[in-house]
Design goal:
The chain has 157 residues and is mainly α. It contains seven helices and no strands. The protein has one domain. The longest helix is centred in the first third of the chain and has 29 residues.
């Protein structure tokens, strides 16, 4: 299963890179959008990981829920960043004629949202960290957004 999943992701990504590299099409707006989305993803993933690493090194945060920085606007900003990276690659490939490489970002989006990312991490975290229920109620799950006031209801975006 893991090999099939890896092939579904890697083959279209490699092919999209080849398509983009061999394209004689001049760079256009779609390329720009792809590069911009990729950069947003890279920055989101990098800063979210740095913020979480810093949070975890402070002994005062043991058992606490990270809800600062990018984590205030999304419960999984690092996964959102990964999502943007893959869709940015896809836009660059589409600009070069590689529309068929959509398999990679679709598979990655599915994995991030429904399998090994958000769904897996949130399956039992409420049992380990009771304060996480309040965090779920006020913070969008994946796509960054404005946090709700504490106790204002569940937000599973």
């Amino acid at each position: 299963m893991r090999t099939v999943r890896s092939l579904l992701i890697v083959v279209p990504l490699v092919c999209s890179g080849i398509v983009a590299a061999q394209s004689s099409t001049p760079l256009g707006a779609l390329d720009g959008a792809g590069y911009a989305l990729w950069l947003v993803g890279f920055l989101f993933e990098t800063f979210a990981d740095l913020q979480m690493a810093r949070f975890k090194t402070d002994p005062a945060n043991r058992g606490a829920v990270m809800d600062r920085g990018l984590w205030r606007y999304s419960r999984h900003p690092n996964y959102f960043g990964e999502f943007c990276l893959w869709w940015g690659y896809y836009l660059i490939a589409v600009a070069a004629g590689g529309w068929w490489t959509v398999v990679s970002p679709l598979v990655m989006s599915f994995l991030l949202l429904k399998v090994s990312g958000v769904a897996l991490l949130e399956k039992d975290i409420g049992e380990r960290r009771p304060a996480y229920a309040d965090y779920i109620a006020r913070t969008p799950a994946f796509f960054p957004g404005k946090p709700k006031a504490a106790g204002s209801g569940r937000n599973g975006s």
